[in-house]
Amino acid sequence: MKKKTIIKLAGLCLVVAGARADIAPESFMNPPDSAKPGTFYFWMNGHVSKPGITKDLEAFKKVGIRSFVTFDINWFIPHGGVTYNSDEYHDCLDHAASEADRLGLEMAMKNCSGWTCSGGPWIMPEHSMKTVVWTEARVKAGDKSVQLKQPEATREFYRDIAVLAFPTPKNNDYRLENWIGKSLNDKKSMELLKMKAVQYNMFAPQTAASPQDALISPEEVIILSDKMDSSGKLNWKPKSGDWTVLRFGYTSTGIENKPPSDGAKGLEIDKMSRAAADVHWKNLLDRVAATAKKHESFQSITIDSWEVHHQNWTDGFDKLFEERNGYDLIPKLLCLSGRVLESTETTERVLWDLRRTISDLVYENYFLYFYEKCHANGLDLMAEPYGPGPFDTSRVAKLVDWPMTEFWFNTQKINQVSKGWSWTSQVVGGAVRLSGKKVLGAESYTRSHGDWTAHPYLMKTTGDRMFCQGVNRFIFHTSVHQAFRDDVKPGVTHGRFGFQNHRNNTWFYEGEAWIKYITRCQHILQTGDHVSDLLALEGEERAFRSFAGSEGLDLDGVRGHKIDFGEIGTLDELSVDKEGFLRASYKGKLLPNRYKMLVVNKASLMSVETARKLGELAEQGVPVFAARPIRTPHFTNAKRNDAELQKLVATYWDSGKIQDPNDVKQALDKIGADCELPDQMEYVHHKLNGADYYFVSNQTFGERQERIRFRQSGKQPELWHPETGEIEPAQNWRITQDGRTEVELQLEPAESVFVVFREPTAEKGGAAPKMEYHAGAELKGPWTVAFSRPFGPKKPQVFDKLIPWNEHTKEEIKYFSGTASYRKTFNLSAIPNQAIYLDLGQVDVMARVLLNSKDLGVLWKPPFRVNLSGALKKGKNELEIRVTNLWVNKLIGESRFPESGKIHGAGAWRKYAYQKFPDWVLSEKPIPEGHRKTFAVWSHYEEGGELLPSGLTGPVRLMEMSETK
Fold first, then answer.
1. Cα separations (Å) of 768 from 13, 717, 760, 963, 964?
2. CA torsion sign, 195 to 196 to 197 to 198?
3. Is the previous residue joined to 238 through a cis bond, with omega within 30 degrees of 0?
4. How far is CA 817 from CA 30, 812, 844, 885, 918, in A?
5. Which of 301, 719, 736, 783 is the most buried (most CB within 10 A)?
6. Greatest CA separation found in the chain?
7. Beta strands of 492-622 (E only): which ranges?
């Protein structure tokens, strides 16, 4: 329990420090370790080495990566010899924890092999995820005895549930709309009807009445379970008529953890069974927990995103269902086959109860139980609580210690964040804030085509957008464990995935400057309180919500305001304060945010309790917006509850006390935007002890001059620059007629800035001359350029003029990847009074500038410009510019040489994956003569590919800053 205590004390210190003052400028320049990002750390199919682990973790430490989550994965590569869950594997895990202790890093571990979800070879079918299956038979009066075929068993596992009979309706082919989705039968969805996996948007209740000739009377349903013998023979004959007999049972869904390393594949555990979870802990996680107890660094177990579809049964589910819903599910099982029992409404109610019960059981016996088991072992639980599964994302995110979301990055579609990932960030983020947590982690910059083209400048606007959506702790996807020797580069990758943030990437160590930028941003965004105007709760219409499906966010796009999203259970925690603001509590603690209004989405179905609570809030003056509900969702006491609901509808909806959700935007306009900003800009607002911190992001790759209005008055605006750590008062600002503060911002490409209001002022504005850079002398050639070995020329080269490396006539330079040092001497007759800047012009993709041996830092985005003050001297000045490009050109050039080992060529998933690694890669043998000098386990490039611009193109100029005329 020691680590848990340390974590809590660390959080307490942050709160106590925050109670004394706002964020200190010194801590912005040099933020604490707690603000540093983390990374996923993939061990690929048994390729694990202790020396490689040590070097990887030392590299993390060096560039400012504080934490890592170990994953065990295979993606079409040969096994490396270290079997998952073996003694050798656990010894390597212990070594990683020991090194993390030594380096002051934080460690977590994925809870099984593969990225999803919780399974392994020790899980037998009886403890796996289960689904309802059935067979059908037609029986008429006078027929001979009927043999009921056993439903198909998966993994030779099958158990009977019940046998039901009913008079065959005339319209026997009719089925309820989206019945497969509503019954959470993913197995049938994918295997029989070849549909997409069940998604949340399939749960909307059918409004059209089903045909009368398709309806089945509940009174005519007969349970015949005791009439069938062990062989399936039915000892029953109807006295008259045409009957349908259904033999219901359950089997394994057959879903396995994926994609596991060799020998680690197995069935996924039953998520509604604590007994199944115990099997998983006994065979794997108890041993992991024992290792964790020996190490301060080993702090968490991780559950990744849910990608194992649905289940709709577990052992004894019928009894559990009856206890929770007050009626017997067995006679109503035919609703799971899509048939309509009594009416469309009755069938929808039964299926709603089914989904809600399953959601509750998954929460209690999977997520909550893992949480309890982790805490019993002194560990935290980290989770990505979303995906097309039977649970409520908000509810789970509020439970776990470290909730996470994710976002993907595509170099061809920069800034096009999908609705699904926007949904996860905002819904999980809302749950973070509604549970009083401070940190929202994110699996960051995931790529399905990790072709080495990503670099910090390209990724910046995407990351800044996610900051504005509430993310405040990046966990990179991904850093892959480099188990090969050091001269095997680029080395191991997570197949074709990730942005390759490991020590063998060309720009990894220079990326420390980018990570420092992220850390400064995260320091502020993890401190204080996120400010939202609107609380939006997911209604009861669909029983739960675990992924957006194709629907996206109901209120996405409300510019100038932030929204916290939550689940309907949050209603029980809401109150109204003396000023009339809506407040949320969590576990008895009142949370700081003051919401100005409440919206309930998906409200066509609503319980009496929900309607009553909404009415109470509206009576207390909170603007409440919700669609007029049609009926209650539950089957039990439906008529009585509907009558009560309609009374509440008349009281609150018909009177206008609860307003139409279409009027939300108009109501927000009356409040006034918290931050009014133009298109292609984003913001997020944090408050701490009366100080307000607005993160404002230029989402374009061009320069911008914009006037931004903030809902602030009476304070001097300051500009805090996270790229440099510099702080300055805003020079050009004014108080508008409506009492807001307008600040003029001059933003460089993809630049972001914190606009901070903390110091009181009686001034109504400020004005200063605008400054711009003016080009001075150009530093022309010749340049002496030394390329790093082993890929560049042995001797330094002379460039009479600056040209891209990919256009050079020498193949060693044309196909070079790595870092090259440009050196030049220039003379200065006198040191000028004003600051002198060095502008590098075009750089692909990073540059470190040294003047007279003084390191002036890394430039990783335009403008590639640095202040030379303090380094310039009169007379001769020695300039060095170290430029780093990407791996792409070298990998294209290397594709001209013969391969050793065959490459998969079939199918997009395994294209360019090695079936066999070259002998020299796995041994101490030198690289063969005439062979390629690089090796990556996944090859994205072929001979003749298009080379990328690389190197320093310039022009390189000395510049001065002066007032514009």
1. 40, 14, 20, 9, 11
2. negative
3. no
4. 32, 9, 11, 6, 22
5. 301
6. 115
7. 529-530, 534-538, 563-567, 574-576, 582-586, 589-590, 597-601
- The pLDDT score that the predictor gives to residue 3 is 42
What is the Cα 957 distance to its own chain's centre? 42
Which two three-digit tokens encode residue 583? 């407040």
Closest to 43 (Cα-Cα) out of 17, 25, 69, 11? 69
End-to-end alpha carbon distance in the chain: 66
3-class SS at 648?
helix
Spatial CA neighbour of 260 closest among 190, 188, 308: 308
Q: Rounded to whole angstroms, how far apart are CA atoms 444 and 463?
A: 8
Residues 31, 32, 36: CA angle, nearest 5 degrees = 85
Question: Exposed/middle/buried for 941, CB within 10 Å: 0-12, 13-18, 19+?
Answer: buried
Closest CA to 551 of 199, 800, 222: 199
Closest CA to 495 of 26, 13, 914: 914
Q: Would you state the structure tokens that stand for residue 274, as one six-digit string?
A: 């604590």
Question: For residue range 179-235, what is the model confidence (pLDDT) as tens digits?
Answer: 999 999 987 776 655 556 788 889 999 999 999 999 999 999 999 999 999 999 999
Is the pLDDT assigned to residue 2 strictly greater than 70?
no
DSSP 912-940: TBBSS--HHHHSSPPPPTTS-S-EESB--
Burial 834-855 (b: 16+ CB within 10 A, else e): eebbbbbbebbbbbbbbbeeee
The whole-angstrom separation of Cα 349 and Cα 356 is 11
By the 8 A CB rule, do 391 and 306 touch? yes
- Whether the CB-CB separation of 428 and 386 falls below 8 Å is answered with yes
Query: What residue type is 215 in one-letter code?
Result: L
pLDDT value of position 12: 28
Q: Which pLDDT does position 195 carry in this prediction? A: 59
Check pLDDT > 80 for residue 110: yes
C-alpha 749/C-alpha 11 separation (Å) is 36
For helices 638-648 and 608-619, angle between their N-to-C axes, nearest 10 degrees = 10
SS3 assignment, position 729: strand
pLDDT digits (tens, 9 = 90+) for 424-475: 999 999 999 999 999 999 999 999 989 999 999 999 999 999 999 999 999 9
In whole angstroms, give the CA distance from residue 13 to residue 859: 35
What does the H/E/C string look like for 816-834? CCCEEEEEEEEEECCCCCC
Residues with Cβ within 8 Å of residue 656, at least 6 apart in sequence: none
pLDDT at residue 864, rounded to an integer: 98
Give me the residue label for tokens 């004003």.
834
Q: Residues for the chain: how many in total?
A: 965
Instruction: Say how many C-beta atoms besides its own lie within 10 A of residue 202's C-beta.
Output: 21
Please give the Cα distance from 464 to 462 (Å, whole number).
Answer: 5
Rounded to a whole number of angstroms, the CA Rg of the chain reads 31
Q: Which residue has the tokens 């002398």?
A: 777
- Angle at which helices 344-362 and 317-325 pack, to 10 degrees? 110
Q: Is 18 within 8 Å of 688 (Cβ atoms)?
A: yes
- What are the beta bridge partners of residue 729? 718
Token pair recorded at residue 534: 């609107």
DSSP string, 764-823: -EE----EEEEEEEE--S-EEEEEPTTTS-SS-EEESS---GGG-SSHHHHT--SEEEEE
